[in-house]
Structures are given as structure tokens and as C-alpha cells.
Amino acid sequence: MITIVAKSIIKNGMKGKFKMLADELIVSSRKEEGCISYNLYEDINNKNVCTFIEEWKDEDTIKLHNESEHFTRIVPELAKYREGNAEINLYKLVPIE
Is the pTM of this model over 0.90? Predict the structure, then answer.
């Protein structure tokens, strides 16, 4: 399993437009094979910081997701409402022995 954490700082006054697009991305992505979970979180201390946290079966399903129609259409639109680039990190679970 791979977890993606994609943090964005939203421009002032653009949160509603960002969330509307994010909702569409989330609904469509959750239907994809290999998607375990896909959610958007708001920072408790700064409401302009939003973070997608996604869990995917493996790298192949992430590749398919990144090439999907909804992803390639919506992600560039989300960028219009963001300050700078998103900070995106991929994680794998570290087993506890």
C-alpha cells in the first residue's frame, strides 16, 4: 500500500472553488480500482491549507490514476486556486518488528 500526501495552500477567497473541484476529484478517484481511500483535510490552525491524503494498492494503480481523465482535467484547474506548487509526498508503511 502507498499513501500520498498532497498539501496545498489555497489563495484567499478561493477555497469554495477549490473544494468544488476537489469533491469531483475525490468522488471519481474513489471509484478507481486500487483506490483504498481518498480524502481532503483542512488544517485546524490555517483554513487555507488543505491536504489530500490518499491510499493506493500499489504504484501501478497510482500511475493509472495519474493518467485518468478526471485527474488530468481537474488537477490543472486546482492549481489555479493554489499559492505556488503543491507539496506531494509518497509513503510506504514501515513494518514494526
Answer: yes
